[in-house]
Every structure is written in structure tokens, then in C-alpha cells.
Design brief:
The structure holds 2 protein chains of 2 kinds. Chain A is an alpha+beta fold. Chain A has a single domain, classed as Cytochrome-c3 Hydrogenase, chain B (Orthogonal Bundle), CATH 1.10.645. In chain A, 45% of the residues lie in helices and 17% in strands. In chain A, strand 2 and strand 3 (26-34) form a beta hairpin. In chain A, helix 2 (50-57) packs antiparallel against helix 3, helix 3 runs antiparallel to helix 4 and helix 9 runs antiparallel to helix 10. By secondary structure, chain B is an alpha/beta fold. Chain B has 2 domains: 5-153, 3-Layer(aba) Sandwich (Rossmann fold), CATH 3.40.50.700; 165-238, no CATH class. In chain B, helix 3 (65-77) links the parallel strand 3 (53-59) and strand 4 (78-84). The longest helix of chain B is centred in the N-terminal third of the chain and has 13 residues, at 65-77. Chain B starts with a strand and ends in a 10-residue tail after the last helix. Classes of the chains: A alpha+beta, B alpha/beta. At the A-B interface, helix 1, helix 2, helix 4, helix 5 and helix 6 of A face helix 1, helix 2, helix 5 and helix 10 of B.
Chain lengths: 430, 248
């Protein structure tokens, strides 16, 4: 028996690895290993008051800290039956878009592009070809600027609180964001062109189940409380309160991240899943981009998640501009957060973080102190699907040398845009 | 003159402090031209994991034997070791209740399998090795890490504020959330450097930068108790980002 071991996955967030066992040409066990230390944040947050929960649980992950914060607030508000104002909804959606722009730009240009162009890092890539790296950095900065203006900080936002925001942005700040986003329109088009021009990555094909938030309006990362899973024409819907159906947990010894399956099949979450579940989003400019990227939905190649992110960059910039226009038309009120009346209750929230479905579910006592917290992250949801694609890539590879196989495995792992700090939070005793 | 060699490392945490470095979008390419980055796993797949380093920037807390081993080997390699962020400087959120029974929590969350995990109570870096410079913050401020690198390039150490968030908040002429509104704000005992970001947005300080040098937690707790806050709850809040007993 031989083994392919990737000890320490580079150019991803957190500490993880890959192990594939081979018996001749037959693939034995396949593992996505998580070495991230257990921080036990969910039990540690117990006893905290409702307004202390989001600032602790956002620390699960920096790259998705806005999504963690807003999903946490939504779960808390669901528990206490709080309806936030339409302005708050818009500002929160804008934060999601800012985070998605930052995260996708970081992922595509600093972490993924070096793979396709044979460089060890974006720094090395920039020494030869600065243009794509500078483009990625500009988009990344735009995403961060949105998060700073609306959330008060690019990482671990502070301005979003239960019931609303500490302070609404000033009109001048929104006007400044609007002009930055105008530049973002041409930058996101250019980004799509760069991604479309990368050499093809065609080495792993199989039927895949996709799961994403089903939103009442056409296009939101934040609204809605139903997940739709799509595979081969058949579809199924899971309501937020039944989220455990998505996480048929099985504890695995090699990882602190528990593995998920829906109706016994692994499923993929993230940009590609969002486009597959909500195909009506892809019209106009996005339809043109989809053609240019040669992206066919439903896709049978996990590497297409990179293309889907490029398409979402265009969509995120467009949507952020629309939201700002809407806010400027309506005028921004400096409204105080909706007051919180605690009660003993459970609240669950599902949203779309940059890497896919994110679930927070909390139980509170009558004084508004949290008694149980459950956080399920996209990378943990993706773990089983990643392993399935690792297996297919090795099985389908004509070249059997370690270097080629190892490169393919790492490219698949990175296409999932894993966030390993996040993934730790899924192993649960049944 | 050859460029100083630098390694950027993450132990257990959210990677937010490394992300702050990558978030210096306007200066990133200039910055990497001034230094020779030998190891930065989050950004590069080609890493030199053995050579000596002039500076090691280390984020995250130590929560496993694996972390402790990595920290020791980084310390051996580096002339100057910089603790990056509240987790590295104070232990951070993972250390908030490190007196509690970890085995019980592990078993509760992970089942019996949890008992076999490589895990130990969260510790700040200086509890295990000598730290030459602390840059606190959850996450760190961009300006602070850039100032640190600029100073270190010139053979100096940067100087950070030694006063509380309150001072910065007052300088911005904000109404006091604690005195005027009776909210549980950690501004009086938390290290400044964030320009009072939260109270400036009318959101109470949660203490994410850890305690200021001469923090008088007892006096703040007494004042809050007078305002009707439960002593135990106040204590728990003050210890969210920096556990009791981590002296610098």
C-alpha cells in the first residue's frame, strides 16, 4: 500500500492536510485532516448575555467574521422574535456583499491564481505579472472598505448589534462607497476575464449534490430560512429549524470537523451551489459572463467553484451598488437598534457566508443568557464532498506520480476555499 | 545589505492577524520588497521551514502540544519573536474560562472521541517562550503592524499607547456609555490603540485588546455593581479576551 500525504495545506486559512491511501491503482481511504486546535467556543459562550454572543462567536473565523456576526445576530433575533428595520436589512446585506467581494478576491487572486499559473504564491506571481495581483488587491480593498464603513471594521465587525446598528453610515460615506464601487464594476469585469483566461483545470468529474439558501427575493445572502439541495434534476427543501437533517453527523477520528451528508449523499456548498440552486440570478451581464467563463450548470467539476466566484464578484459589486442607490434614495436614518425583550426560546439562522451555508442555532433562558450554542460552518459541511472529489480526482488521473496527484488534490482543496479555523466547529455527539 | 528574513506563523486562532497583513492592500507589494519572507503558509506553498529568522510574527494561542512544539521551534529560529494579536498576547477568547474542566467540555462537544484529541488549556505565547514584542488587538491594527516592521527594519521597537480606550474616546468627545448611559463598557481598563472604535459607534467596548497596563478592574467592577450590574457577570465580561492571571 502507498500513501499520498499532504501534511500542511498551504494557501488556505487554517491548518489542515490530505491523506489518500492507494492499493496499486485502487484508492483506499481518503481523508481531509484538520489539525486546528479545539477552542471550544460554543461551550465557553454559555452563560453570556445575548449582546455578548456575536463578538465571541465571530472570532471563529476572520475571513467570514461578518457572516458569523450577522448570522449570530439573526439567530438571537429569531429567538426573541425581533424584526429589524428595512434599513438594517439593507445594511446587513451590504456587509455580506463587502465580505464576499473581499473573500472571493483574496481567494481567486492571492490563493488560487498561483496554482493555475505555476507560482508558489501571489507575491512570486506579482514579481513577474503584477497586473492580476494588483487587480485582486484592488477588489479586496473594495470589499474591506464596504465592511469598514458599514461594520466599523474589516475583520470582526463591531457596529452590527442585536436589533440593528450602533450608528448608521453618513450619506457622504455612502457616496464615497458608490464611487469606489463604480471602479469595482470594471475591476470585477476584468477579474472575470482573468479567471476565464486561466488554463483549464479538467481533472475531476462526477455528479454532485449542491445545497444553498433559497431566498424569497431573487438575490440575497441573508434573507430566507430554507435550504434547497439540488441533484440531477431532483430537489429537496430543508427548513432552518430542521437544520440537523443536513448534518447527518458521523464523528471521524482524523478530524475535528464532523462530516455531513444529505439523504446519505455528500453535498457541496458555496458559490457554485448558490448559482446552481438559484439559476434565475444568472441573467443579463451574468449570463454573458457565464458563457465567457464556459460555466455549465449544474457543473460536474468542483474546480468550477472558482469560475462561480468570479461570476459572483460581478454580481456582488452590482448588488452592492443597487443597495447603496436604494439607501441614498430613501435617505439613511440614524435609528437606534430595536430594543430586545429576552425570553426563554431557541433561534436558528441560516445564511450564505462566502464559502457557503452557515448555521447558528442558540437557546436562551428567560434572562437572555445563552444556554446552548450550535455553529455549523460551510467548510465542515463541505468536508465529505471534498473527500469524494479527492477520491474521484485520484481515480480519474492517468498520471500516477505523487507530484501530479498531490498538485491535483491541493487544487481541489483550494477550489472549495476551505476555512479550516471554521471547520473545527462541527463535530457533535449524537 | 541583505534583507531581513521574516516568518509569519499562525497557531490556533482565526487567522485574523495574518489577514490584517494581507489587508494592507496598498502597501503589501512594497512591504514584501523590503523583507525576505521565508515562511508564510497562509500565502505561499513554497516555505523554508528551517532557516534562522530575523523576525518571527506569530499569531494565535497555544492550545495543543502541536502548537507548543511549533512555537518552541519558531523561538529557536528567530532573533526577535513578535506576538501578534490578543490570542498570542493574552490567550484570547479560547482562554476565557481556562479554569473550567476541559475534559468535560471536550466530551460534551466531541463525545468520547474528544478525550483523545491533542488539546490543552489555551495559553499566551509568553507563558511558554520569551516574547520580544507584543502587538495586541483582536485583530491587530494595520498601522501597528506596519509601524512594528518599519521600526524593526531600523533596529528599533515601536511604542504603542499605554493608556486606556477611555482616553481615546474622550479625545473624540463622545458621550460616555458607562457614566451617561449606564452601559457595561470596558473602555476604562482596556488598552487603547483602536481610536475607541466601538464607543465611537455607540457600542460598548468589549475589551478585545486586553487590559491596559495599570487597569483597575476592581474599581470598575465596584462602579458597575453600584449601577446594578451583577459582579459575576461583570467579571466574566472583563475576562472574555484575557483570562485572569495572565500578567505581562
Amino acid at each position: 500500500m502507498s500513501k499520498i500525504v499532504i501534511d500542511h495545506l498551504a494557501r488556505v486559512e487554517g491548518h489542515g492536510g490530505i491523506t489518500v491511501e492507494l492499493e496499486g491503482d485502487t484508492v483506499g481511504s481518503v481523508r481531509f485532516d484538520v489539525f486546528e486546535g479545539a477552542r471550544l467556543l460554543e461551550p465557553l459562550v454559555r452563560g453570556k448575555r445575548f449582546d455578548e454572543v456575536a463578538p465571541v462567536l465571530s472570532r471563529i473565523c476572520s475571513i467570514c467574521s461578518a457572516a458569523h456576526t450577522l448570522t449570530s445576530l439573526k439567530a438571537t433575533e429569531n429567538a426573541f422574535a425581533i424584526r429589524v428595520s428595512p434599513q438594517t436589512e439593507l445594511l446587513r446585506e451590504l456587509m455580506f456583499r463587502g465580505e464576499s467581494i473581499e473573500s472571493h478576491a483574496l481567494h481567486l487572486f492571492l490563493l488560487v491564481a498561483p496554482d493555475y499559473l505555476n507560482y508558489p504564491s501571489a507575491i512570486a506571481l506579482a514579481a513577474d505579472k503584477p497586473a492580476p495581483v494588483l487587480l485582486g488587491l484592488r477588489l479586496k480593498k473594495l470589499g474591506n472598505l464596504i465592511q469598514e464603513v458599514i461594520g466599523g471594521r474589516a475583520i470582526h465587525p463591531v457596529n452590527a448589534v442585536p436589533g440593528g446598528f450602533g450608528k448608521a453610515p453618513a450619506i457622504e460615506q455612502l457616496i464615497e462607497l458608490r464611487s469606489a464601487l463604480m471602479q469595482g464594476v470594471s475591476d470585477s469585469d476584468a477579474a472575470m476575464d482573468v479567471i476565464a483566461s486561466l488554463p483549464p483545470a479538467d481533472f475531476c468529474h462526477c455528479d454532485t449534490v449542491y445545497a444553498a439558501l433559497r431566498t424569497p427575493s431573487l438575490d440575497s445572502y441573508y434573507e430566507g430560512d430554507e435550504v434547497m439541495a439540488v441533484s440531477d434534476g431532483s430537489r429537496a427543501i430543508v427548513h432552518a429549524t430542521d437544520y440537523k437533517l443536513l448534518t447527518n453527523e458521523c464523528a471521524v477520528p482524523h478530524s475535528h470537523a464532523k462530516h455531513s451528508a444529505f439523504r446519505e449523499k455528500p453535498f457541496m456548498v458555496g458559490a457554485l451551489a448558490r448559482l446552481t440552486v438559484n439559476p434565475r440570478r444568472v441573467t443579463g451581464k451574468l449570463a454573458v459572463a457565464k458563457k465567457r467563463l464556459k460555466l455549465h450548470l449544474p457543473a460536474d467539476n468542483p474546480m468550477d467553484n472558482n469560475k462561480a466566484q468570479a461570476l459572483e464578484l460581478i454580481n456582488d459589486v452590482e448588488r452592492a451598488l443597487e443597495i447603496i442607490e436604494q439607501l441614498l434614495r430613501a435617505g439613511v436614518k440614524d435609528e437606534p437598534p430595536v430594543p430586545v425583550q429576552p425570553r426563554a426560546a431557541t433561534g436558528t439562522a441560516i445564511t450564505e457566508a462566502p464559502r457557503g451555508l452557515l448555521i447558528h442555532s442558540y437557546t436562551y433562558d428567560a434572562e437572555g443568557r445563552i444556554t446552548a450554542a450550535d455553529v455549523i460552518t460551510p467548510t465542515a459541511l463541505n468536508a465529505a464532498s471534498m473527500e469524494m472529489h479527492f477520491r474521484k480526482a485520484v481515480e480519474q488521473s492517468a498520471e500516477r506520480d505523487d507530484a501530479t496527484l498531490s498538485r491535483k488534490l491541493q487544487m481541489i482543496a483550494r477550489a472549495y476555499d476551505p476555512c479550516i479555523s471554521c471547520s473545527v466547529h462541527l463535530l457533535r455527539r449524537q | 545589505m541583505s534583507k531581513p528574513t521574516v516568518g509569519i506563523f499562525g497557531l490556533t486562532g482565526c487567522a485574523g492577524d495574518q489577514l490584517v497583513i494581507l489587508n494592507c492592500e496598498d502597501r503589501l507589494l512594497d512591504l514584501v520588497a523590503l523583507i525576505d519572507i521565508r515562511e508564510f503558509l497562509m500565502a505561499s506553498s513554497e516555505n523554508d521551514t528551517v532557516s534562522k529568522l530575523d523576525v518571527a510574527l506569530v499569531e494565535g494561542a497555544v492550545v495543543s502540544k502541536r502548537d507548543a512544539g511549533r512555537l518552541e521551534s519558531i523561538r529557536e529560529r528567530a532573533k526577535i519573536l513578535v506576538a501578534l494579536g490578543t490570542c498570542a498576547v493574552w490567550g484570547g477568547v479560547a482562554a476565557m474560562d481556562r479554569g473550567s474542566d476541559r475534559r468535560k467540555l471536550l466530551e460534551e462537544v466531541y463525545g468520547e472521541a474528544g478525550l483523545s484529541y491533542d488539546t490543552q488549556p489555551a495559553q499566551a505565547l509568553h507563558e511558554l517562550v520569551k516574547v520580544d514584542l507584543n502587538i495586541t488587538g483582536c485583530p491587530i491594527e494595520k498601522d501597528h503592524v506596519l509601524a512594528a516592521i518599519a521600526n524593526l527594519l531600523n533596529g528599533d521597537l515601536p511604542i504603542y499607547p499605554s493608556y486606556p480606550v477611555c482616553t481615546e474616546c474622550r479625545m473624540q468627545e463622545n458621550n460616555c456609555l458607562l457614566v451617561d448611559r449606564g452601559q457595561l463598557c470596558c473602555g476604562p481598563i482596556t488598552a487603547a490603540g483602536c481610536k475607541a472604535r466601538c464607543p465611537d459607534l455607540r457600542v460598548p467596548c468589549v475589551g478585545c485588546r486586553g487590559p491596559v497596563g495599570d487597569a483597575n478592574a476592581e474599581s470598575l467592577t465596584a462602579m458597575l455593581a453600584e449601577k446594578g450590574f451583577d459582579r459575576q457577570a461583570v467579571g466574566a465580561r472583563l475576562r472574555t479576551f484575557a483570562p485572569a492571571g495572565v500578567a505581562q
